[in-house]
Amino acid sequence: MKSKKIPERLESKRLLLRKLNHTDAPGLYANIRDKEISRWLSGVPYPYPKDLALKFVLTAIAKFENKKRFTFGITIKGIKKEAVGVISLEKVDYKNKNAMLGYWIGKKYWGKGYMTEAVKEVLSFGFETIGLHRIYANVYSENPASERILRKFGFIFEGVEREKFFKEGEWQDYLTYGLLKKEYSKAM
Ligand SMILES: CC(C)(COP(=O)(O)OP(=O)(O)OC[C@H]1O[C@@H](n2cnc3c(N)ncnc32)[C@H](O)[C@@H]1OP(=O)(O)O)[C@@H](O)C(=O)NCCC(=O)NCCS
Q: What domains sit in the chain, N to C, each tagged with a CATH number?
């Protein structure tokens, strides 16, 4: 699986998901520096330092190239060429064929079904293109939009790590959702 040629673009009806490039940094910065986004992401600080976006993009490119993490910029066809969010398969474990799904999109694009569309493409990429057996996601509790997306694709709630992170001045529970290839195949 590691030697396989990896596509750098995934396409759906309204979206083009593509490997990031350094020109994406300003657009990502403009969208991620929002408390309502960082609130739900463990590695994203608030306030968000400007140079962090470029660092993130450069790391994402390097990790994509060595197949350790597949981060796709989310671009909306006919609206924006720059990425307005990202979706990734990270912590790719080739031996055990599993990876973690993560995503965010700028607030002005919420509620239009974009992330559902992006997740569908990335699940297909994970299970069919790179041959994963299991994809999982970690979600802070009280993030119903994210849980809803996962459940729509058949992800199963597997458990909770209680008070794992201290964020927003409070201890936050962290939920794990998992999806096996056989469950995905049945649902698609
Ligand atoms: C979570 C997030 C990615 C959703 O993106 P989106 O493009 O708005 O998602 P979609 O429109 O595809 O789907 C959202 C679903 O959640 C539902 N939803 C939204 N808010 C909800 C709420 N408060 N309660 C219950 N369901 C809710 C929507 O109705 C939709 O379900 P439906 O298709 O059955 O109607 C986006 O809000 C985001 O980037 N949030 C901040 C970062 C984040 O939470 N990332 C995930 C970390 S695990």
A: 9-187 (3.40.630.30)
